[in-house]
Specification:
By secondary structure, the protein is mainly beta. About 0% of the residues lie in helices and about 40% in strands. It starts with a strand and ends with a strand.
């Protein structure tokens, strides 16, 4: 059998699983799982087929669950926890990132209050990364509108010891030694000189999955690109209708292509003439509006984990909205169809490409 796509859709009231046919035209819906609680993120680990879900219960406490059978059954992990004597307590999980292929049992989790945890047993137990926690600048981190979370974990395509994390609101930190030490990584080129704090609030930071050193970042103000060997962030917002938004995605094969959904800053909704996905195929030098099939004039919203791509050819692109829809493109973002609707508010979309 060929490859198929499974969409893990987090909502404010549980996780839904959409299983697509080979053509990605019909979707069988399951769920909710973990309801009625918010799911900030769910992910698929292509190394062993595990699935992970950040279930953030408003009573009874947040928890991370994992599935080893493609979502049929779920088990609770031992939650991330700060060491005894810490001044902080685990509140909720923002992101779960499977590790590099060269580190087969490693999984990373970003939580609130902002901290990075590592699992070396496929997500069953978690250990705090103390080097990041001991950063002198941590005292200056402060909550964004959604809370003070570490929500982006960008692992280099070639070297698992090289990665970045994005914190809202605390900026970007880089390690080149697997997390033993970290350095602030917020120097920009071509940005707004009157906004030296622009990187305080990261919205989404991505590492290209195939090309070492390529990074794409959506911050509170503007989008930025980085090429291999560069140590500054290049502003790439020109051509977008606004400088605000949350969701971002990268093409897994084309190292110059990325996607964003621009929003109105204060309203957190799409601007006129309605929701659209903007794409670039030249590292953000130019942007193209893509809205064929999307409802004209619809001022829909989407959040930071709300968009991702699959690994098929042609590429599938997917995003979820605040009114409970999941949209799917089978032609690299040029046109769109509804994959699901009438769900609760969609908080995350993860596209798992699985051998059928």
């Amino acid at each position: 059998m060929g490859k198929q796509v499974v969409l893990l859709v987090g909502t404010k009231k549980g996780l839904y699983i959409l299983r697509g046919d080979g053509a990605r035209k019909n979707w069988a819906q399951e769920g909710p799982i973990g309801g009625p609680f918010p799911i900030h993120h769910a992910s698929y680990d292509p190394r062993d087929g595990s699935m992970y879900a950040a279930i953030n219960s408003t009573w009874g406490g947040a928890r991370i669950e994992y599935s080893r059978d493609l979502g049929k059954t779920w088990e609770k992990s031992k939650n991330p926890a700060f060491p005894a004597g810490s001044d902080r307590t685990f509140f909720q999980t923002w992101h779960i990132e499977p590790g590099h292929a060269k580190t087969p049992n490693v999984v990373w989790a970003g939580i609130e209050p902002a901290a990075l945890f590592k699992s070396e047993d496929r997500g069953e137990t978690w250990e705090l990364n103390t080097a990041l926690d001991d950063q002198p600048s941590r005292a200056k981190w402060n909550p964004g509108a959604g809370g003070m979370g570490l929500h982006s974990i960008a692992i280099d395509a070639d070297d698992p010891k090289k990665m970045q994390v994005g914190i809202s609101a605390g900026g970007v930190y880089t390690t080149t030694d697997g997390g033993a030490s970290w350095a602030e990584d917020n120097q920009q080129r071509g940005g707004k000189e009157d906004r030296p704090d622009v990187f305080a609030c990261i919205h989404k930071l991505l590492a290209h999955p195939a090309v070492s050193g390529v990074r794409f970042m959506r911050v509170h103000q503007d989008v930025f690109w980085r090429e291999p060997g560069e140590t500054t962030w290049r502003n790439r917002n020109e051509g977008l209708p606004t400088n605000f938004g949350f969701a971002a995605a990268m093409h897994p094969r084309d190292r110059a292509t990325a996607y964003v959904i621009p929003l109105h800053d204060m309203e957190r909704l799409a601007v006129a003439p309605g929701i659209a996905v903007f794409s670039t195929n030249d590292r953000g030098a130019t942007w193209q509006r893509n809205d064929r099939g999307l409802p004209p004039g619809a001022r829909l919203g989407t959040v930071r984990e709300g968009m991702q791509t699959d690994r098929l050819d042609p590429l599938g692109v997917y995003f979820g909205t605040s009114n409970g829809q999941v949209w799917a493109s089978r032609d690299e973002g040029k046109s769109w169809d509804v994959a699901a609707q009438y769900l609760p508010y969609v908080t995350s979309v993860h596209a798992a490409t699985i051998e059928g």
